[in-house]
């Protein structure tokens, strides 16, 4: 691994300073990293290391373990950059695995931009999260094999902004992880996919901390686009995973190129006039085989060795490229499974390849495969 930085102390409160020594340390509240930390007074007083605090911590870990005891694997979808396609990846991986008969849950912890429900076909309207008799939340089901939990189900208006500070966000993430009943008709989940917000913010730290209390993080899929503006931030994400000991399943280079059937292209002359009909007619007459081809164009400039070079630098698996496909974008907008609607497209083949890698790295007993 390229970085030699020290590991993050996972006992640290979510809003702790970088370099936190941990509330149970003898230097808690006294170390140089404690200056300016909102938890300094509490750490100095021993509030986090008191018998009561330790008992509470142990109870939280036990609660989380109970809530995830019927979940075989938890996979985080991460990226240090926004707009690279994390939600697309999370939704379509969930669709694809559910289509193969696996029991899948999709947890959307992007609290300020919850788009996962729409991408799997359970929009806000009509989708309601219920409390069971035990007080647990019952997720919304896109189909019998795909359960979804998101803050969007708790909002009264799809256009309502979530303007919350860190502690309230962290509390809701903890509720999602400890109070959602994933049992359903499948008896639990083979895979829980967690769609995260961009960056390495409170939500990331809180999610990883809570999951690691139960040793529940199976791995992460890191998504990037080819250009250096994205790669620079994704390197920070890989560094974050290294520090927090989150295993990297693979790096995906999304939107590596734009691909479209030649027959679906629009042709303009130098004046901007549409001459699509004439061009397609000419191709049909003189070169019909061209209409069966796919046109590809690089949207983002690749810098240096690109995403593969970055993966090599950090010694993590490089899964390959996912081309941008208008049908993929349409499938996400309509909440459909792209690998089922367009199975022969290059993007669908890439997605199925990613699923194959997950199943190989994190196998489950195929109790749901009948």
Which series of helices and strands comes N to C? Answer: HHEHEHEEEEHEHEHEHEHEHHH
What is the helix content? 25-40%
Radius of gyration: 23 Å
The residue-averaged pLDDT reads 86
Which overall shape is indicated by the principal axes computed on the Cα atoms?
globular
N/C terminus separation = 42 Å
- β-strand percent reads 15-25%
Backbone structural class: alpha/beta
- Tally of extended strands? 11
The largest sheet is:
9 strands, mixed
Q: Please, how many helices?
A: 12
The low-confidence runs, each spanning 5 or more residues with pLDDT under 50, are 1-7
Written overview of the protein:
It is built from twelve helices and eleven strands. It is an alpha/beta fold and 370 residues long. It is globular. The longest helix has 17 residues, at 51-67. The protein has helices at 40-45, 51-67, 86-99, 116-119, 166-179, 202-213, 228-244, 276-286, 306-314, 326-334, 338-341, 346-361, and strands at residues 71-78, 104-108, 130-131, 137-138, 140-143, 146-150, 189-195, 217-224, 248-261, 294-297, 318-325.
């Amino acid at each position: 691994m390229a970085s030699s930085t020290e590991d993050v102390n996972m006992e640290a409160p979510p809003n702790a300073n970088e370099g936190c020594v941990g509330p149970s340390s003898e230097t808690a509240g006294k170390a140089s990293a404690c200056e300016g930390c909102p938890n300094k007074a509490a750490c100095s007083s021993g509030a986090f290391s008191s018998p009561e605090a330790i008992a509470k911590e142990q109870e939280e870990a036990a609660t989380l373990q109970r809530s995830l005891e019927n979940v075989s694997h938890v996979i985080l979808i991460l990226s240090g950059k926004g707009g690279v396609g994390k939600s697309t990846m999370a939704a379509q991986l969930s669709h694809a695995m559910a289509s193969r008969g696996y029991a899948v849950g999709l947890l959307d912890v992007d609290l300020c931009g919850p788009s996962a429900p729409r991408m799997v076909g359970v929009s806000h309207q009509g989708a309601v999260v219920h409390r069971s008799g035990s007080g647990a939340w019952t997720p919304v089901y896109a189909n019998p094999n795909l359960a979804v939990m998101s803050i969007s189900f708790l909002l009264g208006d799809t256009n309502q902004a979530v303007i919350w500070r860190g502690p309230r966000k962290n509390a809701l993430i903890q509720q999602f992880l400890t109070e959602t009943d994933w049992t359903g008709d499948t008896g639990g989940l083979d895979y829980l996919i967690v769609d995260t917000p961009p960056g390495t913010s409170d939500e990331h730290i809180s999610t990883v901390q809570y999951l690691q209390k139960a040793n529940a993080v199976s791995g992460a899929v890191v998504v990037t686009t080819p250009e250096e503006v994205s790669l620079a931030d994704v390197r920070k994400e890989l560094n974050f995973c290294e520090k927090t000991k989150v295993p990297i399943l693979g790096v995906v280079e999304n939107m590596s190129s734009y691909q479209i059937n030649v027959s679906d292209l629009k042709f303009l002359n130098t004046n901007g006039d549409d001459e699509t009909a004439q061009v397609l007619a000419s191709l049909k007459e003189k070169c019909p085989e061209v209409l069966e081809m796919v046109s590809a164009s690089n949207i983002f400039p690749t810098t240096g060795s690109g995403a593969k070079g970055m993966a090599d630098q950090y010694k993590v698996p490089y899964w390959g490229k996912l081309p941008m496909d208008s049908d993929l974008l349409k499938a996400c907008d309509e909440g459909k499974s792209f690998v089922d609607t367009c199975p022969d497209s290059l993007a669908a083949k890439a997605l199925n390849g990613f699923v194959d890698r997950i199943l190989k790295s994190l196998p489950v007993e195929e109790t749901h495969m009948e």
